[in-house]
Every structure is written in C-alpha cells, then in structure tokens.
Specification:
Number of strands: 8
Protein name: Crp/Fnr family transcriptional regulator
Structural class: alpha+beta
Organism: Chryseobacterium tructae
Strand content: 15-25%
Helix content: 40-55%
Radius of gyration: 19 Å
Order of helices and strands: HHEEEEEEHEEHHHHHH
Shape: globular
InterPro entries: cNMP-bd_dom, cNMP-bd_dom_sf, RmlC-like_jellyroll
C-alpha cells in the first residue's frame, strides 16, 4: 500500500502531491455535489475524513472472517467482492467501476465479521473512510447524510435488479447487457471474474463471446 506523506522537503514535489491529492478528492466532491449541495465546511470535512491510498493489482483490501475496516471510494481502477463456495471456488458478486463506493456493506455498517473478500483487480487509487469517521461525517454534514442515504438506496436497487437479471435473463443477454452498460469492465477485468459475476463458467462465456463476434 502507498500512503501519501505530506512532509516532503522538495517544494516542487510537495506542490505536485497537493495537486494530485486535490484531484483525487475532487472526484468524490463532484459526485456528491451532483446530488447534494455542500458548504465549504462540509467539503473540507469530506476531504479531511477520506484518506487517499494506492494499492497494486491483486491486493486483498478486506478479508473474510474479519470486520471490514473501511468504506472505499474508487477513484481509478477496478475492485471486486468475492467469496468461496462449498467447492472452494471463487464467486465474484460485485465488480466496481469508478467512480463509486464499495465494501461489504452489511458487514461494514453493522461492524460484523464478513464472509466476503474485497480485492483490487487492477492497480487502484482509492479514498477510504473508517466506520467511526463515517458516522462523525454523517453527524456533522447534513448534505453528506442525504448523499449517503442516496448511495445506500441505489445499492439496494442495484442488488435487486442484479438478482432479478440473474434469475430471468439468459447467459447471453446478461453478457450483452454488461457489454452495453459497462464496456470498460470487459476491457479491464479478467474473463474468469466476469464469467463468475454473470453466473456462468468461463467456457460458457467464451462460447457466447465467439457467437457474438460471428
């Protein structure tokens, strides 16, 4: 993991670092202000509570059997949630496209041990916040409270929609829908993760892709 050290002696490097961190936080601020009005104080609170970090690909951010420590905002890169089934195979349940939030929500909110793993698929730039700090931010910022409720509602809606699609759409239609709505996933995420996310095995996905290309 790379954290960002503000105590840098070279003024030019320090200036570039400040610019870079502002750019990371600005993505979060822009997303919030699309849905809520932030005062200058609330903006500063968001920047202060969300810690910028970088991780390499394949890094496990949160492990099953432990209480999730952070809620993550994905600035760049791709992150997935997965668990192991009864056969010991990985099952990918969520793939995040930036910008967006990700964690094992129920376990994070209720601070209980998770049965899921959170992993960087690619190198990732992230902002993260601890549960205690998130609670403080919600208390101190009515705009962020409204925004967090909206994020939670959208998460519920997405999960309901995904469950319905897995139950009602054919494998080919699920792939075509992903290709239409999230084409960047197809270019950045390994096929075995995509196949698992779509509820099929890699051979079936390969066959569908070949049929579509013809």
């Amino acid at each position: 993991m790379a954290k960002f050290n503000e105590n840098i002696s070279n003024p030019f490097v320090a200036e570039q670092l400040v610019f870079y961190l502002c750019k990371m936080h600005n993505q979060l601020i822009q997303l919030i202000t699309q849905n809520a009005t932030l005062s200058d104080l609330e903006r500063d609170l968001c920047i202060g509570y969300f810690e910028p970090v970088m991780f390499p690909k394949n890094r496990i951010l949160e492990e099953e059997g432990k209480i999730p420590a952070y809620l993550y905002f994905v600035v760049s890169g791709f992150v997935r949630l997965f668990h192991y089934n009864e056969n010991g195979d990985e099952v990918t349940t969520h793939i995040n496209c930036p910008p967006g939030f990700i964690t094992s929500y129920d376990n994070f909110v209720n601070q209980k041990k998770s049965d899921e793993n959170l992993e960087c698929i690619t190198e990732c730039e992230l902002l993260r916040i601890k549960k205690a700090d998130l609670d403080l931010l919600v208390q101190q910022s009515s705009a962020f409270k409204d925004f967090s409720i909206l994020v939670f509602q959208r998460s519920l809606s997405y999960n309901e929609k995904r469950s319905k699609e897995l139950a009602t759409l054919t494998a080919e239609k699920r792939y075509l829908k992903l290709m239409e709505e999230y084409p960047e996933v197809l270019h950045n995420v390994p096929m075995q993760y995509i196949a698992s996310f779509l509820g099929m095995n890699p051979k079936s996905l390969s066959r569908i892709r070949k049929q579509i290309i013809k």
